[in-house]
Amino acid sequence: MTNEKKIKIIIIIFLILIESFVWKVYNSNDLSSIGIIGGADGPTSIIVGEVNNGLKNGNHSGPDVIIREHNDSSKNNENQTEGDDNRIELLKEAVEKGLLIIVNKENPLSMDYKPDDLKEIKYFVPDRSEASRYMRAEAADAFHQMVDKAAESGVEIKMTTAYRSYHFQKVLYDNYVASYGQAAADTFSAKPGQSEHQTGLAVDVSSPSVGYQLTIDYGEKNEGKWLAENAHKFGFIIRFPKGKEDITGFQYEPWHLRYVGLTAAKEIHEQGLTLEEFLQQNVIKKW
């Protein structure tokens, strides 16, 4: 056997071993749960959202994670307070549930991703798609609580769309591209696989004051202001805030809410962060 053939055989065996290792460590669902945030010179942190919890046919308990304490490297474990302990555990729990999964233009989902714990929303605009009236169960319950609380203040909030499948998003995106061109469409509509709606954790809302439409003016209405001030109390954030377009990749959307759980929502709201910034500061990554 020639040296050239020996080298080829060694390379083939090496590639097979690498492929087997990757398949064992990361199945196809796990790969979609790993996102990288960083600049042009390379990633600065790896963000892991456990997408298998609530994912169709998923049955994983979730990865071990490290969560930096308030981005303060000077604090050591000896000085850690009980509140810090509790915060870390709550954020770990949110990761394991898949509530902090990052989905954007750099971190898409596979076309067959679908949560298996979708629950029907009871407050919706009736002339919109019936198929979109669902959220993951925890998010749906929180949404109902938020809408009920808003009603006590005379604020009416209803869902226009929540869960969207990959294929539904493709139809929507293709229509926007046909109508406005791709450059414009990419500022307000996600490509299929890049929409948070596919996670079952996002919901677009509206109110009578704007004719149940999705409009930037909503942020100046009583309902939009109420959401901006109170959504975090129920685990939701304004996912695409004003002035953060260069980070989120999308225009300001006062109607687009994302469920991340109470702990993360409170910190994101109080610190004026986007989800990308929150995850990058807190460094959630595989151990």
Q: What features would you describe in this structure?
A:
The chain is of the alpha+beta class. The protein has two domains: 3-96, no CATH class; 118-272, 2-Layer Sandwich (Muramoyl-pentapeptide Carboxypeptidase, domain 2), CATH 3.30.1380.10. Helices cover 39% and strands 15% of the residues. The chain has ten helices and ten strands. Strand 1 and strand 2 (42-48) form a beta hairpin. Helix 5 (166-180) crosses helix 6 (182-188). The chain is globular. Residues 7-66 and 70-78 have low confidence and may be disordered.
Short description:
By secondary structure, the chain is an alpha+beta fold. Helix content is 39%, strand content 15%. The longest helix has 23 residues, at 3-25.
Estimate the mean pLDDT confidence.
Answer: 78
Radius of gyration: 21 Å
How many domains would you count in the coordinates? 2
- Which fold name fills CATH's third level, the topology of the largest domain? Muramoyl-pentapeptide Carboxypeptidase, domain 2
* Helix and strand element order: HHEEEHEEHEHHEHEHEHHE
Number of strands: 10
User: Low-confidence runs (pLDDT<50, min 5 residues)?
Assistant: 7-66, 70-78
Examine the secondary-structure arrangement and name the CATH architecture of the largest domain. 2-Layer Sandwich
Category by helix and strand content: alpha+beta
Question: From the structure provided, what is the oligomeric state, counting identical versus distinct chains?
Answer: single chain
What's the story with the biggest beta sheet?
A: 4 strands, antiparallel
> Which term fits the overall shape?
globular
Beta-strand content estimate: 15-25%
Distance between the termini: 44 Å
Number of helices: 10
- Strand sequence of the main sheet, in spatial order? 6-7-9-8
CATH class of the largest domain: Alpha Beta
Helix content: 25-40%
